[in-house]
Write a structure and sequence with these properties.
Low-confidence stretches: none
Structural class: alpha/beta
Oligomer: single chain
Number of domains: 2
Mean pLDDT: 94
Helix content: 25-40%
CATH superfamily of the largest domain: Aldolase class I
CATH architecture of the largest domain: Alpha-Beta Barrel
CATH topology of the largest domain: TIM Barrel
Number of helices: 16
Strand order of the largest sheet: 9-12-13-14-15-16
């Protein structure tokens, strides 16, 4: 360990999957932890983002839509044996591994490496990143946190290559781990009771600030049977609306950011105390910014007043969480939606100024016992309303009621390889829908 300031390296690893697209995707959790660490440790902080579409090593410049979205650079790699029968090419998405190794060559040995892990079935990218770190620096302490570490803690401890696996919220745990590694005298005591106490995320570590993520609440009180939100954070907490609006202004002033993507799972909950005052504060600031809702919005909270404020505040990309139009599926799996919610919300948004053809509707596809005919009916219903359907393919996630049902029914082992959580692997290997019918659903253009 250096006698001066310690060096801490933060790493966002690759995606390994059949498909991936930068749909407002940034490692917000890792950048929040970097902000927490920066406030508590006098350290030099470095960051390597293996998903950086602006990385200078890329063979071709990244392509960006005006709102920041775009395709990742990718390289086809061999499929792992357990998913070899899925009829899709398998790729590593992000910068070439040689570019990652070259980035490490340009820095001295860190005192610790902090790695995140998002989707559980992307863990091969974590393994590769840790292996490259090990080849360069040997037994440097590697700390792993994030979704994979939380939902698949045992698997992560056995297979990720990390020395320490932090399961669950990491803002306090990571400081305890760093105190063990660096020594108590180097880590100022801190305890965060809620996200209201957090320092700002370390967005300065990013190379591209055309768009940034925005988290104004954490958790979700709804308990959809297929969703792991409550397993990742069992409570629900919110920031003060003025503070969240101030963060938007700060990032616009500092980085010139004009697009912000909400990462909230329950953005509209208790709207009069949260989203309404937040949007009103944004309107008062008069900033030339736009907002996007990739995680989906709860339909029943949308009325004429909220829709009009959406329009006025600059919410440009609307994604609505319908999930299914089958009352039985809603009753069993998705308590946040009732029949008629979509029609009412769409009418309110249309009156506010939105074109129906620009309103996106999430429909889940591939739930156990869900039929191809039922999913087709969902798609056609949304189209008849003049809206744009988007299939959200079911992924079996540990910690959810549907996962428990699949384990009890013998479809998946309790310790199944997380690669089988993949939203495309599961339908082909374990799902109830015939692969030919599944292909037609995935194509979508043939449904009429």
């Amino acid at each position: 360990m250096s006698a001066s300031r310690p060096l801490l390296l933060f790493v966002n690893p690759w995606i390994t999957d059949f498909t991936a697209y930068d749909f407002w995707l940034k490692p917000l959790g890792l950048l929040e932890i970097a902000g927490v660490v920066r406030a508590a440790v006098e350290a030099e902080i470095r960051f390597v983002d293996c998903l950086d579409r602006s990385h200078p090593s890329l063979p071709k410049p990244g392509r960006f839509k005006p709102d920041g979205r775009g395709p990742f650079w990718k390289e086809e790699i061999p499929k792992p044996e357990i998913i070899k029968n899925v009829p899709r090419k398998y790729s590593r998405y992000g910068i070439p591994p040689a570019a990652f190794a070259a980035d490490l060559e340009r820095m001295p040995a860190p005192d610790a490496v902090l790695v995140t892990g998002a989707m559980t079935y992307w863990y091969p990218g974590i393994q590769e990143a840790v292996e490259i770190v090990r080849r360069k620096w040997g037994r440097v302490p590697v700390i792993l946190g994030g979704v994979y570490a939380t939902l698949c803690e045992d698997h992560a401890r056995r297979h990720s290559g990390a020395d320490v696996v932090v399961a669950g919220p990491g803002e306090n745990a990571v400081l305890r781990v760093l105190a063990d590694i660096l020594g108590d005298s180097r880590v100022r005591p801190a305890s965060y009771a809620s996200i209201r106490d957090w320092p700002r995320p370390a967005f300065d570590l990013l190379q591209n600030h055309a768009w940034l993520p925005l988290l104004t609440t954490r958790g979700c009180p709804f308990r959809c049977a297929f969703c792991a939100a409550s397993a990742l954070f069992p409570g629900f907490e919110r920031r003060g609306p003025p503070d969240a609006a101030d963060e938007v202004e700060e990032n616009y002033r500092r980085f010139g950011t004009r697009n912000f993507a909400f990462y909230d799972d329950a953005l509209l909950l208790d709207r009069s105390a949260h989203i309404l005052p937040f949007l009103e504060a944004v309107v008062r600031k008069g900033l030339p910014v736009a907002f996007h809702t990739p995680n989906g919005l709860h339909l029943r909270e949308i009325d004429d007043d909220l829709a009009a404020l959406f329009w006025k505040a600059g919410i440009k990309s609307i994604y609505l969480s319908q999930e299914s139009t089958d009352p039985a599926v809603l009753r069993e799996s998705c308590p946040k939606v009732e029949p008629g919610d979509l029609e009412r919300a769409a009418a309110c948004l249309e009156r506010a100024g939105y074109d129906r053809c620009e309103l996106n509707v999430y429909l889940i596809a591939g739930l156990p016992n869900q039929s191809a005919a039922g999913i087709r009916d969902d798609i056609l219903h949304v189209r008849r309303l003049g809206l744009r359907p988007h299939l959200a393919f079911f992924s079996p996630i540990p910690g959810t009621p549907v996962w428990d049902d699949l384990v009890r029914g013998g479809k998946l082992a309790v310790d199944a390889d997380p690669l089988l959580h993949n939203k495309l692997a599961f339908p082909y290997l374990c799902g109830d829908i015939d692969p030919a019918a599944w292909e037609k659903l995935r194509d979508g253009s043939t449904i009429s």
